[in-house]
Amino acid sequence: MDSADLEALIGPPRGQPPPVRWRELEAELGLTFPAEHKELCAKYPTLHFDGFLTWFNPGMWPDPMVAAQGMNDVLKGLRKRTSRSPEVVVIDDLGQTSYQPRFPIYPEPGGVLQWGNTYNGDKCMWLTNPDPNKWTIMIFRGLWWHYESGLLDFLIGTLQGRVRCPLFPEGWPSSLRVEEIYK
């Protein structure tokens, strides 16, 4: 999947996305972002899907240090909450729950790093990997759900109804309506 597949679903961008200073942002965070994320950022600004799911383009913050600090700050509460137990509750695609070892939180190696959120307060994250093109998707709202593929596959699959996160409302998405957020 690539950004052209997403564009085929939601249409072309209506304007120019903000530039992302990748070299500085990646140096500040000490990691390299997936190529598909960079491709999406080069095409679209922040996107809000069907009134529920928001994917953030880090170019919204012109200063890469501010973007990096924001990415760290949103994980503070999650880090505190998950540090109390060595296990977390994971929900599978069928709604069954199980206990698994807690997921690391960035900046821990292989830690989760937020890329978006939902209207319900879900944290939409990557489970990072030394190989940025192997980052997978994690959704958290009290329970954890893991999707074993990348961002574009998740977004496109969700919009097409092929991927169903059990933490998201039944019947969402109800449309392919997308709001572009330029800030």
Structure commentary:
- With 183 residues, the protein is an alpha+beta fold.
- The protein has one domain.
- The protein has 6 helices and 9 strands; from the N terminus they run H-H-H-E-E-H-H-E-E-E-E-E-E-H-E.
- The protein has helices at residues 3-10, 22-29, 35-43, 64-73, 76-82, 151-160; strands at residues 46-49, 53-55, 87-91, 97-101, 112-118, 123-127, 136-141, 143-147, 178-181.
- Strands 8-7-6-5-2-1-9 form a 7-stranded antiparallel β-sheet, with no helix packed on it. Strands 3-4 form a two-stranded antiparallel ribbon.
- Strand 3 (87-91) and strand 4 form a beta hairpin.
- Helix 1 runs parallel beside helix 6 (151-160).
- The longest helix is centred in the middle third of the chain and has 10 residues, at 64-73.
- It is globular.
- The mean pLDDT is 95.
Fill in the keyword field for this structure.
single chain, 183 residues, seven-stranded antiparallel sheet, two-stranded antiparallel sheet, 6 helices
Write the layout of secondary structure elements.
Layout: H1 3-10, H2 22-29, H3 35-43, E1 46-49, E2 53-55, H4 64-73, H5 76-82, E3 87-91, E4 97-101, E5 112-118, E6 123-127, E7 136-141, E8 143-147, H6 151-160, E9 178-181
Antiparallel strand pairs: 1-2, 1-9, 2-5, 3-4, 5-6, 6-7, 7-8
